[in-house]
Design brief:
By secondary structure, this protein is mostly helical. It has three domains: 51 residues; 82 residues, Orthogonal Bundle (DNA polymerase, domain 1); 141 residues, hpI Integrase, Chain A. The protein is built from 16 helices and eight strands. α4 packs across α7 and α8 crosses α12. 24% of the residues are buried.
């Protein structure tokens, strides 16, 4: 009864109280209910609507937002809805998800508003990047683009876009900062100051940091069962960032050799935390007697004040890692060994980051060789 007299390919389905249209978009059959009474005039209007939609589909200009602005399909294509859905399905560390959420909610949603994702153009993204570049570093801009690239690539994968508007937008170039290690005498002064003016556990913490080169986020997560006393190593297998325990930065475990001094640090630390059990943190907050929640408190409460008291130029605690590397390299320790201790995925990293200290370790022996080779040539003038 409902479909009597309608051509089979009209795309209009006549129901008791309304009409439903059917069309193919991106290879899938789409159905939309029209809350129109099934009168002859409305049926003809529905057929004209289907014809227009098919025309737009054929010319690849069909838009749900144009024809069905209140539909679920249109809503799902709006940037805020799609971006939040992308974030909900993202497999990432808690801290990474938190960062991406902040970027989406505080930057990209205010920038694009409630518009359909397919209406966002490369030119406006470039304008946002240009304005953002006046306020923050190139590295921050590049980080801001990471979740946006993920969102638009997902839209491409879902068939909502033919290609991402960021396809031809490149990251901004930025200069990575050089290591800024402490000189050996500065390191000694800091450690002496902490030994005299800070709780013993703080002194132990920074002795271990300078003496092993482990990352602060790795050191805070070290446990007693990570130590191999027989082989004098400690296994670095986890990190704690923003209170969350996760894998190391490189997602690779490594064994770090322990010098006599580092064994002594751990022996001193035993009385503070070993009784808590083998699977508990080695280093504790000396005030609360509990594990440090993150690496901020040690730096703010003890490390920076020590530098200020000594008149040493202020540097971040991660420079303890660079200090370990540079002191060892200047002492002639094999760069490949240092790279393994630090946990570099690529051994070339140590040469790229610490080339000047490796060169300095030869005490100008190589420069003397060059001088001898080129003496008596035109280059010696």
């Amino acid at each position: 009864m409902a479909r009597r007299g309608r051509p089979p390919g009209s795309g209009v389905e006549i129901l008791k109280t309304c009409l439903r249209i059917r069309f193919v978009h991106q290879g899938e059959v789409q159905r939309q209910t029209l809350w129109w009474k099934p009168t002859a005039a409305n049926i003809r209007a529905a057929e004209r609507l289907v014809a227009r939609i098919r025309h737009d589909v054929d010319f690849d200009i069909f838009s749900y937002e144009r024809y069905f602005p209140g539909s679920i399909e249109a809503s799902q294509r709006r940037f805020p809805v799609y971006a939040r859905a992308w974030l909900d399905g993202l497999i990432a560390e808690k801290g990474t998800r938190s960062d991406y959420k902040a970027m989406i909610e505080d930057l990209w949603i205010p920038a694009f508003g409630d518009r359909p994702i397919n209406e966002i153009k490369p030119s406006e993204i470039r304008r946002i990047i240009a304005g953002r570049s006046m306020q923050v570093s190139a590295k921050t801009v590049n980080n801001n683009l990471i979740p946006l690239r993920g969102i638009f690539q997902a839209a491409v994968d879902d068939g909502l876009l033919e290609h991402s508007p960021l396809r031809n937008i490149r990251n901004r170039k930025h200069q990575a900062p050089l290591p800024d290690p402490f000189a050996p005498d500065e390191m000694e002064k800091i450690l002496d100051h902490l030994r005299e003016h800070a709780p013993e556990q703080v002194w132990n913490w920074y002795m271990f940091a300078f003496g092993t080169g482990v990352r602060p986020s790795e050191q805070i997560a070290l446990q007693w069962d990570d130590i191999d006393w027989n082989h004098r190593t400690i296994r670095v297998r986890r990190a704690r960032v923003r209170g969350e325990v996760k894998g190391t930065k490189t997602a690779v475990e490594r064994d770090v050799d322990l010098s006599d001094g580092m064994i002594a640090v751990l022996e001193r630390q035993k009385r503070f935390s070993e009784a808590n059990g083998p699977d508990t943190p080695i280093f504790l907050n000396p005030v609360s007697g509990r594990p440090w929640p993150d690496v901020q408190d040690q730096r703010k409460l003890y490390f920076h004040p020590a530098q200020e008291a000594l008149g040493i130029r202020r540097r971040d605690a991660k420079q303890t890692r660079h200090t370990f590397a540079t002191v060892a390299l200047m002492g002639g320790v094999n760069p490949a060994y240092i790279s393994r201790q630090l946990g570099h995925v690529d051994p070339r990293t140590v040469f790229r980051c610490y080339a000047r200290w490796i060169d300095g370790a030869d005490h100008r022996r190589e420069a003397v060789k060059l001088n001898r080779l080129f003496s008596g040539t035109g280059l010696s003038v």
